[in-house]
Fold these 4 entries.
Entry 1:
Amino acid sequence: MRVVVGISGGIAAYKAALAIRELVLAGHDVHVVPTAAALRFIGRPTLEALSRNPVSDEVFDDVAAVRHVALGQSADLIVVLPATANTIAKIAAGLADDLLGTTILASRAPLVIAPAMHTEMWEQAATQANIRTLAERGITIVGPVAGQLTGDDSGVGRMAEPTDVVAAALSAVSDASAPRPLASTTVVVSAGGTREPIDPVRFLGNRSSGAMGVALAAAARDAGAAVTLVGANLHVPAPAGVELVEVETTAQLRDAMLARAGADVIVMAAAVADYRVDGVADEKRTKEAWGEAPTLTLALNPDILHELAQQPRASVVVGFGAETEPDDAALLQRGRDKLARKGADLLVVNRVGHDAGFGAVDTRVQVLDADGVVADASGSKTSVARAIIDTVALRLAAQQKEQP
Ligand code: CTP
């Protein structure tokens, strides 16, 4: 998920580093937006290295990408830690005089703040009124807690522990996804890329990380489905609450999918190797045996999506088509052809090579059915996956209505 971490100018700013690290290690795409004052407490290189993304506090950087709103629009979650009295007042008033302000105003994502300040500032009537305003608007406020403050004093005003802020922020997102359009359904998602052995130590493979399929499995889970993820050599962790079936080859993926062909929804997001090696060697091939210019003979793999679509079923079968075609009309035509050839109900046309710059959209898809485009979504993989799952849920509901 895309998380914007806002940092305001308090001494607790250094603790934001721990939260950023925790979010990145959990697999999130983290964009840090410090205020100018925050950068006096913690250095930009630290934030860039930990978040693995460029960091700016400037509204007028990268104007062409409309970054002052793009970051907020594409965020799935915004967490501000520490939130100073000044930043809290600005959020309450809806001020947008810096990048953090514009990002928060331009976002519909859940907002979580972790106040940190001296006790007197926290107890001040103005601060308390602002906090009440934010709470009434549904903003999650974590802490502050009582404890040692920056000087010799202690009392209420210390920032909650970064790990507690992260936990509260992540659960704010799952609480926010209230509608569960796939309740009491079963969903099977294939993800990753299959590998075809050459000999016991070598294989032919592809670069697919499985991130899109994993995001789809998480979105289906959040929509209330019982989800099985058939993962082929995933580079990313499987989401919690999802059954994981690990496979390596196309043949194993095919067996795992056909065994589950009765599911309500089947999504083939895996990059399936079109060919396998004909005549896999039982022992490691040596250079001596292979010679100077070896050739591999390949055999065509079965088309799993096509087979799944031919099964007697009551399910929605979804395929993917990653295309580099730059022309819009030609791209859609290719998608329509693939949909018809595969016999799937829906085809997600994945426009690879789209602008993936800082603050800009990183994925764009169009979902086709036999009549044309039924959904168009862009943004983080999490938000795109949600849009795809919403479309699938609508299709399933329509199909179930048609059946007696
Ligand atoms: N797919 C499959 N079995 C295969 C190849 C692909 O189930 N042997 C599925 C993929 O999981 C994806 C869809 O088919 O959902 C489209 O994959 P793609 O590689 O784009 O399709 P191909 O038929 O291989 O078409 P192209 O010739 O354009 O690569």
Note: Confidence is low (pLDDT under 50) at residues 354-361.
Entry 2:
Amino acid sequence: MTNQTQQLSLQIGDVAPDFVAQTTDGLLYFHQWLGNSWCVFFSHPKDFTPVCTTELGLASRLKSQFEKRKVKLIALSVGSVVDHSEWTKDINETQHTSVNFPLIGDENGQIANLYGMIHPKANDTFTVRTVFIIDPSKKIRLMMTYPASTGRNFTEILRVIDSMQLTDNHSVATPADWKWGDECVILPSVTDQNTLKKLFPNGYRQIKPYLRMTPQPGVGQES
Ligand code: BEZ
């Protein structure tokens, strides 16, 4: 089995594979660098390309939003750290920012293959736009794949992180098109009346036994 075949089978719930890489911030041991943080690990087709330039610029400008949620950012494209550093100057100039997270140098595509970021039918060298969201236990919680020609929506990435953190901390899921402050859905696994009272002091609406809506927990208690 090739690396590629193996790694295209990465799934939600798998531990994110560890690696050592040269980056624009120096040598990085991935699991050690993750520590207890969440992480958005995203790939770019190629250095010195327009859509990627806008994405890295936007992600840099949104860094404080990710930090607020205890999320680290790290990006990869198949290219050298020297090229990434040169390109960073253009990103800073044109996107009015200063790239503030590591870009992984992956000249031979080894890490891209480890994560199944190269889809040979799209392009046999360059990565597609993948996003892996990794939680503090280093498990993959979300995988998203976009074509090279479509820039990603970083507001959606923040939204899904909010949703997953609400699930972890408050036993709720989030309905279609949920946004911060909207009602949430009580996890079907929570059925005990005392637990329901304790977890949802503001009450809930039962529309069906399996469809119970509650005000978003924690709203108004943000730091
Ligand atoms: C871009 O980042 O602009 C891009 C890269 C590959 C194909 C199309 C667009």
Note: Helices lie at 3-7, 30-34, 50-61, 63-68, 81-95, 110-114, 154-170, 193-199.
Entry 3:
Amino acid sequence: MLKKTVLKALNAQINAEFFSAYMYLGMSAWCEDRNLPGFAAWMRKQFEEEQKHALKIFDYVLEQNEAVSLPPIAQPPAVYKSLQEIWEETYAHEQHVTSLIHKVYALAMKEQDFATQGLMQWYVTEQVEEEQQASAILEQVKMVGTNSSAIFFLDRHVSKSRGE
Ligand code: FEO
């Protein structure tokens, strides 16, 4: 049993995680289209990760015998100016997701909902890694700039770096 406010916030977070998945899938297509298979693979893996994030909350809501709501997922951007813009967007997006997670956590604290706090703690920790990865790759992308042979090697390196 969940408080209505907490249920609403959790359902909104399910949608936000699915939007993230959709956004990374769009980025994967952009990278694939520009012959960047390593970046495309990274983004596709992230698409899968984000679906797991959504489903973890989805399962929790059902375990609490509450109703999951699945409103439409917003259309993500399909056009980017450059690889650097993709990574700037990724980093900014993960910072945004962190702020959403913190709001759900703060609400669970206010409502003295200890089980939801436990669930959200996993996301708080996960977001530290998500931001760190995005920021590190953004810095590498900035470093190589428009040097095509450096981009070629970075593309190969990025796909191996996940090691999953
Ligand atoms: Fe589910 Fe990338 O945060």
Note: The longest helix spans residues 114-144.
Entry 4:
Amino acid sequence: MNTLLSASAASQPGHGSDSISDRSGQVLAIRGGRPLTGRVEVKGAKNLATKAMVAALLGETVSVLRDVPDISDVKVVRSLLEVHGVTVDDDGEGVLRLDPSGAVSAHMEEIDAHAGASRIPILFCGPLLHLLRQAFIPDLGGCRIGDRPIDFHLSALRAFGATVDKLPSGIRLSAPQGLHGADITLPYPSVGATEQVLLTAVRAKGTTELRNAAIEPEIMDLIAVLQKMGAIISYEPNRVIFIEGVDSLRGYDHRCIFDRNEAASWACAALATDGDIFVGGAKQQEMLTFLNVFRKAGGDFDIAEDGIRFRRGGDLKPVVVETDVHPGFMTDWQQPLIVALTQAHGTSTVHETVYENRLGFTRALNQMGADIVVHPEGIASDERRVPRRALEQAAVINGPTPLHGADVVVPDLRGGYSYVIAALAAEGESTVRNVEIIRRGYEKFLDKLTALGADFDVIG
Ligand code: EPZ
């Protein structure tokens, strides 16, 4: 096997710690069997930073966003903003300066060319309608973890008074008379649809009432961003959010909330490899549910001022987990957790209720020696969490099963992360392909693996 760059070589003088991450490395050769130990830092949340960048379009003055992760999802949103005339300066240390004063309509093909594999473009609708009275949003990308419709988004935009036409390559929207407040009840506390309503209502004429809203910490952080801009937003404990539209908004200066999903991913890596990982920047409050499950699975953690230390507290134990909206167990956490549960002594169950196809990644884990059975009909339940969803899925994981190396292809962001961790927990060598997808959501991923003592080569 021709080794272009070995992890250990990269850490030699002259290879700069960033050189690995900057390589386009699509394929890793990973030698497993070594615990991951050391410290990683998590920056701002992928699922907040990208939305706060879109919010800058609503301001009449410059916005500054801090702790922005260096990931491809941020790059996609940056180029979409620039295509619309927003100037975005990056100080190279995670601080973005966004100036919307030159915002203009963009051409359809330019938008299409920059939309990438992201779902964020759909959130440009409201801000562009306020700014330009019209918008074109290309068909969305994003992880293939379900059919990921946008019906909640489109019905919300129509409730605000927008005309929405479905074209073969995307949706065209117009609101020549501007947008007015709306009374919207979401069929499901959708994160994206809640963000859609927030980013549209803040500048609509009149008041908007949103019921059955998502209340994830990233949503609350977006509300904080919008309030800094001059928006008037209040919320009640029963998922009801009120927004009073205002005539204008100014720029914000905001430090992103930390990335809970990345923090939980490294915690599961510590469990799966019997390692000991300190995750700098992780905070207990936003991870309470995860920490409970982590402890029940046999993990141990110490909360420090500047982060959380994660490690095994003895043999891993089986757990029964059902994914849910916040404050439940996040669907983004189940994939790395399942890798750890392959090493638990007993039978675990993970019931995925948010997406209809987010357990497909377990097939590759079984190739590596895991014993996971997926029940596509989920667990008998007289109600389905997400309307329209025919199926939920349940994974039954029997452990402990020793894992061995295999040749696997990354299917999506969190599944891909899980494959790498499984390869690091396995005996022998694995080839993991299409690793580029992981860089959509994990900043300096390969550098962090190197810092934790992972033994791998970038081979393609
Ligand atoms: C966000 O996706 C996150 N992505 C996801 O993280 C996360 O898993 C998800 O929220 C749930 O927390 C970003 O923020 C970029 P939803 P989003 O709208 O907004 C259905 C990751 O790994 N639905 O809450 O797309 C939908 O099909 C990613 O970082 C409709 O039916 O999630 C799904 O079954 C993966 N119609 C459920 O609701 C709609 O119009 C939850 O989706 C919208 C959603």
Note: The first strand starts at residue 5 and ends at 6.
